[in-house]
Amino acid sequence: MFELASLSKSLSSTVIAGEVGDVKVRWSDPIAKEIPCFTLQDPWVGSHVTIADMFSHRSGLPDHAGEVLEDLGFDRNEIIKRLRYWPLSSFRISFGYTNYGIAAGAQAAANAEHVSSLSV
């Protein structure tokens, strides 16, 4: 793993776009479809939030949700599971820059391809 900062977002979205082009995953696939333990504070939103929602930062999660947990030593799997405790803004209306939203979207796509390096 390398410290790539936000460059990883464009790399992840490019890889997922290739998978979408190969019809192996869809941007409209719900995160919970591929990460069964995933949800958000509003269960309906948690079951409907998609890979596209996470990559476009419109899940309703607040800016930088989960990052303080990383500072406290939680691993990525646990942080993705704990996104359920963050208060939500309006789903698909509000913008909140979330690295762990991107991580959840990327993990869902990886799980769909059975190439997961995480065990969320």
Describe the structure.
The protein is mostly helical. It has one domain. The protein contains seven helices and no strands. The longest helix has 15 residues, at 7-21. The chain is globular, with a radius of gyration of 13 Å. The mean pLDDT is 90.
Write the layout of secondary structure elements.
Blueprint lengths: L6 H15 L9 H4 L8 H6 L2 H5 L11 H5 L4 H7 L16 H14 L8
Query: Counting H and I runs of at least 4 residues, what is the number of helices?
Result: 7
Q: Output the radius of gyration.
A: 13 Å
Unreliable spans are none
- Beta-strand portion reads under 5%
Q: Could you tell me the mean pLDDT?
A: 90
Largest sheet: none
Shape: globular
Summary keywords:
120 residues; 7 helices; globular; 47% helix; mainly alpha
Summarize the structure.
The chain has 120 residues and is mainly α.
